[in-house]
Design brief:
- By secondary structure, the chain is an alpha/beta fold.
- Helix content is 37%, strand content 22%.
- It has ten helices and eleven strands.
- The strands form three sheets. Strands 3-2-1-4-5 form a five-stranded parallel sheet, sandwiched between helices.
- The chain is globular and about 60 Å long.
- The chain binds adenosine monophosphate.
- Adenosine monophosphate binds next to helix 2 and strand 4.
């Protein structure tokens, strides 16, 4: 006989835990790292592949978003995913949604400002996936740091019975964060794209040497990004509320960038966590050079 203390423990004891990895497909090694971790930690592994139309503020971005479904299913099979949810749009949106999941404050700046409507689409699809699948654990990448803040806020505010598991950013050997949109980087774009991570790492170096002023940290990152076409923002914000700060202080923060390289808009960040009262940088993990 077992004596357990929480509803979650009792529920999971007889049905096992369900882990969910939500994706928009075009899977790469970043997605694979989420699947691997979820496979280790959950009894049943569900991956969803759905290019969610409501989170695209630019119709051209939606129509050209890559959809290599055979390769995606092959990766899911390699990672021993139990169930892939690959829904038609009509399953997720049987009629135009009249219900919104409006996450305030956390969505004001950065991606929320530059991509109006993006986070209402994200909040809606994440709520639908969590309600429809009812996972115990849901895995999200730190690559999308503000999205992670939004997801954590909505699950707390709506008392959703799920644990959000943040996963480290996976990078190319030269530092470029893996992204489904990297396939659009043509010719010299790929070389220029590495300036985003180079800038973030230079800023992280500075922080490790004791710098705390946001303006100096941001300017250091910007100064490495001389050849990108346009920088939407370089900003230091809190991890819990995505609120801009003028100094590192003693709350967990992230330094985020969004920039255009050719026709492609890229985002990236480094996290400044607080461990035992100390700032600890998380630059993510680089894949080994082959
Ligand atoms: P997406 O398919 O772009 O919506 O991403 C699905 C999930 O994978 C999100 O939680 C992302 O944050 C995560 N993700 C995307 N790129 C990376 C990466 N380079 N490293 C780790 N996680 C990532």
């Amino acid at each position: 006989m077992e004596v357990l203390e929480t509803f979650a423990e009792v529920r999971n004891r007889h049905r096992g835990t369900v882990g969910l990895v939500p994706t928009m497909g075009s899977l790469h090694e970043g997605h694979r790292s989420l699947l691997e971790r979820a496979r280790r930690e959950a009894d049943h592994l569900v991956a969803s592949i759905f290019v969610n139309p409501t989170q695209f503020n630019d119709p051209a971005d939606l129509s050209r978003y890559p959809r290599p479904i055979e390769e995606d299913l092959a990766m899911c099979a390699e990672e021993n995913v139990d169930v892939v949810l690959l829904p038609p749009v009509s399953e997720v949106y049987p009629s135009p949604p009249r219900t919104q999941v409006l996450v305030t404050e956390v969505t004001n700046g950065m991606e929320g400002f530059h991509r109006p409507g993006h986070f209402s689409g994200v909040a809606l699809i994440v709520t639908k996936l969590l309600a429809g699948i009812q996972p115990d654990l849901a895995y999200f990448g730190r690559k999308d740091a503000q999205q992670l803040s939004v997801v954590r806020t909505l699950t707390t505010d709506l008392s959703l019975p799920v644990t959000i598991v943040p996963c480290r950013t996976v990078r190319e050997p030269d530092g470029l964060a893996l992204s489904s949109r990297n396939v659009f980087l043509e010719g010299g774009d790929r070389t220029r794209a590495v300036e985003l991570s180079r800038g973030l790492f230079a800023a992280a170096d500075l922080v490790e040497h004791g710098e705390t002023r946001a303006a100096v940290i941001e300017e250091t990152a910007r100064s490495e990004m001389k050849h990108v076409d346009e920088i939407d923002y370089v900003e230091l914000a809190t991890q819990d509320r995505a609120e801009l700060v003028s100094d590192l202080g003693d709350t967990p923060t992230f330094l985020a960038v969004a920039a255009w390289v050719g026709e492609t808009r890229l985002i990236d960040n480094v996290a400044f966590d607080i461990v035992d009262g100390q700032v600890v940088t998380d630059r993510g993990v680089r894949m080994p050079a082959t």
